[in-house]
Amino acid sequence: SFLSAQESMHGMMMPMMRAEEIKAPVLPHGAALQEVAKLANQSQQPNLFKADVTAAPAETEFVTGKKTTVWAYNGRVPGPLIEVQEGDTVEIRLINKLPQPTTIHWHGLPIPPEQDGNPMDPVLPGKELIYRFTLPEGSAGTYWYHPHPHEYTAEQVFRGLAAPFIVRAKNDPLKDIPERNLMISDLKLTPDGAIAGNDMNDWMNGREGQFVLVNGQYHPVVEVKGTERWRIWNATSARYLNLSLGGRKFTLVGTDGGLLEKPVRDLQTLLLSPAERIEIIVDAAGQEGKVSLFAEPYNRGKMGHVAAEKRIDIAAVNLLAGPSIAIPEVLRKIDDLGEAKAMKKMVFSEAMSMANGRHMMLFLINGKSFDMHRIDFISRLHETELWEIINNADMDHPFHVHGTQFQVVETERNGVRTPAPYRAWKDTVNVRRGETVRIKIRQDFPGLRMLHCHILEHEMLGMMAIQQVK
Ligand code: C2O
Ligand code: CU
Ligand code: CU
């Protein structure tokens, strides 16, 4: 039988070294950024994408001369990029060669719940499962896939299981702009180069590794000639990426579920919380030079003794003169989700409890810890609802719901309501401590959907609930 999460967690609760006290190994850096390898389509049929994805232990070399055992999709960290078009049918056979149950969750995709890799549908070690779904019109956007088995999600992701998924539009207004994908993850190694386990601090605040990686590389170099469109994934367990190009300007054109209605120009920083994605346009024209992609300090609130936030240099960026391509003023039309027919309230909180004589943090939604056999919310199919997500906790929590894209209506802080600055499709939104976020949401498939904090340690420690759509 598997080591239960509770057991392994209690192991973690023993006094251990703090992350910052572990002597970090040295990683090679400074190589040109590599693209994430694409998953090859095995089908000859038009509009069908078919492939095998094996989840298995694999060896890689992060530290020169040292082997690191990771858990990987088809032997790669990050896993292979799946790139399809709106309207395509996707058929992926998952082969589980891990020592634990796993699933593939298609983060953000509008697909039926029974194909979405819910914790209720584990694929046991040595077993296989075929996921099959069709991507509707209008679903073009930047998604990802990762495991979602009960109690093992955090571990399987930090061992390396996560990969990008892009749905292309039939008519893309930005198709003339060269693209680049940056999947950001982080890596925590022991001094001898093995993937480190979680310590007490990781369980409370979410795991942050010593190394921030882009496409699996440590501190790569990105060369931008003229104009580029970047898709950026925050695929870390818990790291808030307050992205900047060191004062250079960029334009936001898309969020989790695809393009905005209009470009948002002249940005210098943009906060990408765990699991969120953005599309930005970086134009070197008029701002040539050597800069960096930074994560600027962002205080998300942490418990216990933690080091002050510092700026992280994620990648070197060389902005070079080249063809400058104008961004159209109109990208697409996003219809409002319409009048809400029902309302739901979700309160995020933290609590301390005693278990087996040890103090343990609990992360709760409406005062309850996740129970796989309990339905927490019932919604009607195709009906727009207003959800009020209230963060009463001492730290920020990125809220995520499966199977659909929602629209943020407003945020409220100290009684002051701020309407969303633009309409956008999102499946993950940061809820700052002490803040309330109101969203409009609609589910278009019947069945069970997960909603949770995407700090994967918090999800594991209870901050998850089930929505039944009928
Ligand atoms: Cu990306 Cu339920 O998660
Ligand atoms: Cu998801
Ligand atoms: Cu959280």
UniProtKB/TrEMBL annotation:
Alphabetical list of InterPro entries matching this protein: Cu-oxidase-like_N, Cu-oxidase_2nd, Cu-oxidase_C, Cu-oxidase_fam, Cu_oxidase_Cu_BS, Cupredoxin
Keywords: Metal-binding, Oxidoreductase
Domain Plastocyanin-like, residue spans: 60-171, 206-301, 359-465
Known EC number: 1.3.3.5
UniProt-listed Pfam families: Cu-oxidase, Cu-oxidase_2, Cu-oxidase_3
Root EC class: oxidoreductase
Superkingdom: Bacteria
GO molecular function (one): copper ion binding
PANTHER family, per database record: MULTI-COPPER OXIDASE, MULTICOPPER OXIDASE LPR1
The protein, known as: Bilirubin oxidase
Species: Tolumonas osonensis
